[in-house]
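Inputs:
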Amino acid sequence: MTQVAPPEAQQDNLLEISMGPQHPSTHGVFRMDVRLDGERVMRLKPVFGYLHRNHEKIAEAASYLSAIPYTDRLDYLCSMTNNWGYALAVEKLTGLTVPERAEYIRVIVAELTRLQNHAGMVGFLLQDMGASGTPLMYAFRERERVLDLFESLSGARMMCNYMRFGGVRVDCSAEWLSQTAKLVAGFNSFLDEFEQLLTGNEILMARTQGVGLLPRELAINAGVTGPGLRASGVNYDLRKVDRYGVYDRFQFRVPLGEQGDVFDRYMMRVLEMRESLKILEQALRDIPPGPIMDPKARLRGLRPKAGEAYGRIESPKGELGFYLISDGSPNPYRYRVRPPSLINLTVLEDMCLGHNIADVVVILGSIDIVMGEVDR
Amino acid sequence: MTLEEIRGRLQGDIPGCQAELVVNGSPSAQNSLLIDRQHGLEAARLLRDRLHLDFCSNVTAVDWPDQDKTEKIKTKQTVDGVEKEVEETRKTKIPGYLEVVYHLFSMTNKEGPVIVRMRTANRTDDVTLPSLTPVWRSAEFQEREAFDLYGVVFEGHPDLRRILMWEGFTDHPMRKDYVPPPDDDLEILRER
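Outputs:
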């Protein structure tokens, strides 16, 4: 909305180019209509819809249970947190409670999801800057280990379809927990290695510091959530604010940035991974035995009584919300996803104006989007 | 701040503003305020600036189609000098509307959600609502989506275009009475 309007005479000299939908740096089928004055960005309009399948309509025609596998496919890197957001909304709508052991398992898989998402995001960001291969491969090496854990727990690496309203689908074994503990114990040394390679790197600093500034007030007003918001210095993490699940039992800090540039957004991811490891250590230590499903939960043929509920969680990308309206029938009357990836893109133009075209790629990478969630 | 207090503030500070409490029957107990569309923008400014609801998280539309209500009414009629009770069925049409729902939170006070709704007059020719994008930028894409998929026209939106469907598409696919166009490829297969 805030546009740098060049004088009339210069308007003709602007070069209009279409970045995407097939472009290696757009993280999926995403297009940006960019107007350039030389290499400087004067206007940028994102174009969506290439992956639109009307997810919400599909879920409104399906039962409450059968919407869960569809939520896997929103942000396909983070199926566990997507499941949780939806399950939380249904639990609010029906009043189901979750047994303690299931709450702990949810925290464990959600924090593992955050680890692999943030590691992958940093890898892709560096790939976008031209650091071909090495950082991404390091990140993916660790991500594979997390996905192996997901596979042995839920049967699927990415489309986990694991959580249910009122609990989780299958219990985890003691062996799985010890394997997870082993991964958690080794992850910090990976982060040390990663940071040694990247954080002080001259090229990374030159490409990211002072690039894509997002002022604090704009971030709040534009509804930016997740690490992007906290990089601008706003202390707002739903794990602390809403304390959903059992997050109030863990000691962890919320990292905050100062400048709100790409470098801060990169640092947020690294620091959040370290905090996630702290949560994981505590959750793995304290996980109690017990049931994993609310005995009152009826998975098939659930008919919540008429009403509505909005449930939200801190997904790795930001605030993932589900808004459900029930009319008493077996399928939701209204099913709405609040997609953090889409809403975080609201400020893409503001962050890019006046920068070089090469910086657009880096700024987009620092927002961390997945088109499955943007287009739904 | 309770919803009842917010309602009092809105009606007290904005002359003519009507806010109605909508009670939610589910265990979530998330009640909401229905604000008349003439004062929507003013109400939003007040909510943001004086009640610290600085974060508009979720914006979405809901379609409530026209409903036919059938009532059976017993009337007494005199036929051939004998009084009889005759049952009549009367059909009344309850007009539908499009509803837009805003989920507001406060990042400064860590409060929320405060849920605000606005309704259009009908689903056909009077579907305008005030855009709240001038108050909360986060509504920009979400209102475009409500326009695209539901056909709510937001007055005062800086850039109201389709967002997910393509240019030239005419219908609104999230409406309850939406009929998808025939799939040409499927028709060809059927003919074979």
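Remarks. The radius of gyration of chain A is 21 Å. The mean pLDDT of chain A is 89.
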